[in-house]
Amino acid sequence: MRNMPWRDFFALVVSIGVVGLGLGATMPLTALTLDQRGVGTDIIGMITAVSAVGILAASPFVSGWVARFGPRATMIGAVWAGALATALMQLTDSLPAWALLRFVFGGAMGVLFTIGEAWVNRLAPDNSRGRVVAMYTTSFTLFQLIGPALVATFNGRIAWSFAACGALFLFALPGLALISNSGPAQEADEEGVRWRLILPRMPMIVLGAAFFALFDTLALSLLPLYAIRHGISAELALLSATVVLVGDTALQFFFGWLADRFGRARVHTACGVMVCLLLPLLPFAINTPWLWWTLLLLLGGFAGAIYMLALVACGERFSGHSLTSASAIVNATWGVSSGGGPLLTGVLMQTAGINALPAVMWAGAAVFVASALWERRKSFGAEPFTAR
After folding, report:
1. Complete DSSP assignment for 289-345
2. Are 111 and 58 a contacting pair, CB within 8 Å?
3. By C-alpha distance, which of 127, 141, 139, 114 is closest to 59?
4. Residue 309 near residue 136 (C-beta atoms within 8 A)
């Protein structure tokens, strides 16, 4: 880690902090505001899903924008887009208008995801990739966990809450000014690698990203409503999402160290198994406070590690422009899963019962574990892949 370009890495920490703070504040604020207006969980799931569609829609265009404007300017543009889209939600109660603004917000977040994740893997040395990527993802959740706590603190006390959340984005601009305008831009002009050549080499990566996108989006948007329906106050319900993110933040570097020491694939699979074991306990733990908070901490840590180690696997398996394409696939996967997941879960919670939430999360984790065991049996992805 001695040769790390720390100035660029700091800029990445700032950019992922913007993503985390934006998602962490606006998603529960949006869900809680709609719930207080009497909107059902199915509609709330739809509004949440629109942000994910924005992430998906932006992914194919990021390389072109980086080639034309450079990575730093592209990130700054994404920050402004996210800030304005959030602030403008203050000016209207129209659900179609909110859907459009959340679409723009999601696209801005998708730009930051794609540039940041590809870049951190280029910066990371092979022998410490797990720890470097863990530092990056830790910064994401460290800022993200502040969001629900802010909403819980200021809910009902600040009239212009969405405008205030939008303004928070602008604090990232001084940090982004430190980033060098090189690196990813040098590769953006190369001929793109076809996704059909890369996608078959990353089933575990894709399903790991899909699971965490589902888990993270549901934890921020519908977990507070799940807790409220079980009799927990709105303030504590919002803090439930924060506790999940605290577990994610606190344990990422530890899992990165484990991956560097004992092998990424082994630790990756073990985290998926633990999530499958813990999720069925949620309905039984919610009425026992110490068990509820402990369970949320552990779930946040193990689920977050699944995503972090999926990014590590990208760096292990791909290099050059294929790494950028793999990162774009990860973010397209995030868009699909975080869009369709809340939509499906909101409908199921409305029709089949509130405990559909942990059931959907468990199904996503089980599919990931199945893919991990399949890859391990096939010795899949052992050799790095570079395409031109």
Report:
1. HHHHHHHHHHHHHHHHHHHHHHHHHHHHHB-THHHHHHHHHHHHHHHHHHHHHHHHH
2. yes
3. 114
4. no
Domain segments of the chain as ranges:
6-175+188-378
Give the C-alpha separation, 246 to 224, whole Å. Answer: 15
- CATH H-level, domain 6-175+188-378: superfamily: MFS general substrate transporter like domains (1.20.1250.20)
Kindly state the helix (H) or strand (E) to which residue 9 belongs, with its residue range.
Answer: helix 6-36
The C-alpha atoms of residue 272 and residue 305 are separated, in whole angstroms, by 9
* Residue 92 binned pLDDT confidence (cut-offs 50, 70, 90): confident
User: What is the C-alpha to C-alpha distance for residues 120 and 146, in angstroms, rounded to an integer?
Assistant: 23
CA distance 24 to 140: 10
Q: Which residues, other chains included, contact 254 with Cβ-Cβ below 8 Å and sequence gap of 6+?
A: none
From the number of C-beta atoms within 10 Å of its C-beta (0-12, 13-18, 19+), residue 363 rates as middle
Give the C-alpha distances (Å, rounded to integers) separating 276 from 241, 269, 328, 361, 388.
Answer: 19, 11, 27, 9, 39
Provide the 10 A C-beta neighbour count for residue 249. 22
Residue 386, pLDDT > 60, answer: no
What would the two tokens of residue 313 be? 């696997």
Element containing residue 353 per DSSP (H, E): none
Nearest to 336, CA basis, from 9, 51, 42, 11: 51
The pLDDT, as a whole number, for residue 340 is 78
Distance CA 25, CA 367 (A): 29
**Sign of the alpha-carbon dihedral angle for 168, 170, 171, 172:** positive
DSSP-assigned beta bridge partners for residue 385: 318
**Alpha-carbon gap, residue 97 to 52, rounded angstroms:** 16
* Dist CA 34 CA 40 (whole Å): 8
Q: Are 111 and 75 in contact (CB under 8 A)?
A: yes
Helix (H, G, I), strand (E, B) or coil at 385: strand
Tokens of 82: 């996210």
pTM of the shown model = 0.80
Considering only CA atoms, give the Rg of the chain: 19
Which of 114-123, 183-192, 196-205, 367-376 shows the lowest per-residue confidence on average (mean pLDDT)?
Answer: 183-192
> Which phi and psi (to 5°) does residue 24 adopt?
-65, -30
